Amino acid sequence: MKKYSWVLALSLAWGISAQAVTVRVNVINGTTGIIPNIQEVTLVAPMLGMQPLATAKPINGTATFQNIDMNAAPALLAEGTYQGVKYSAVVRENTLPGAEPGSYATDLEVYEIAAKPDDSLHVEMTYFVVTAFGDSLYIEKEFRYINNTMPPLTFKNPEGLIRFFIPQAGQSSTAVDFKHGTMPLKTFPSMNGEQASLPNELKPGETKIHVTYRVPFMGGSGALKETFYNDFDHFHLYSRPPSLQVVASGLSNEGADEAQNLTIYAANNVKAGQTLNMRITGSSSANMQPVLQPIVGSTQTVITVVLALLVLAIGLSYSFTHESNSDPDLTAQLTALQETRQTLLKQLNTRQSDTDIVEKQKLEKRLRKIYQRLQEHNAL
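Request: output the structure for the sequence above.
Response:
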């Protein structure tokens, strides 16, 4: 039913009057605590393809926008570029005591740049999944980067800070997603032999890199390797179907998850530069089951894995196939829309009396536009 919820929004009343508001954006340097030198702040509309609505120069750290039509643009982002990195923040209704009625505000936080990560950048391999189907092995792996710098810094290096392995045989089928925030963004790595790298900066907080590809698997036997570019204390490898066996030096069998038809393996104390050479034997799966339920490892992590089988077969890989890294703001766009939708739905629920009919119509029209935009990206 979820995918039809936009139809309900489209059935709402059309009558509405204009809603012009004031928007204030407070620009903050999260590293130094002082006002950063940003030349301008731009208000953009995620629903209109990130169309700029207005620009303003911050005065004493605050950019003020007058007469912004919230009906034309039900969701807004404030954007600013600092030291070559673009930052954005969702604009929300200002509910602070003493705030001007109907005004909107947000804090746009930027950070100083560091070129070389230190010990405050922690990298994990969240999971590594091997699925045999037909004449191929489908590989899915996820890396988690945690930037815990204090004070917070953004890591940026033109040579690429994010590196991972893609075998030659899998490069034509590779799909990579970059996710900082709630929505993934399809991106494309640069290749140097079998080393892939991404130019994306690593902002404070968590960033996830999701990688899928496939390699040949003929006659129930094959080889698979993984070269590591970071140290990992521990990671799990999952294989399916249960008849599939993975053997490698340093890889231990930790048993099976019968409910998920998985065999669980683990590796400890993996070092950067190390290569894991795996021998794969067994039969391929005859069933296409694209989604696994949460997997509980024998020692730690609970994760939800979406198999690379369908990811590669229909080219999704957790992303929006009609978008590319030429639109680096897609994550922020959809995050803003989803957060604004929740806020407007709460406001609409409070407008129950007949005297609120005009305000209800305003909220309904804004919601209608948001649902349309989210539906376009299958993000409802």
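Residues 295 and 301 are 8 Å apart (CA to CA).
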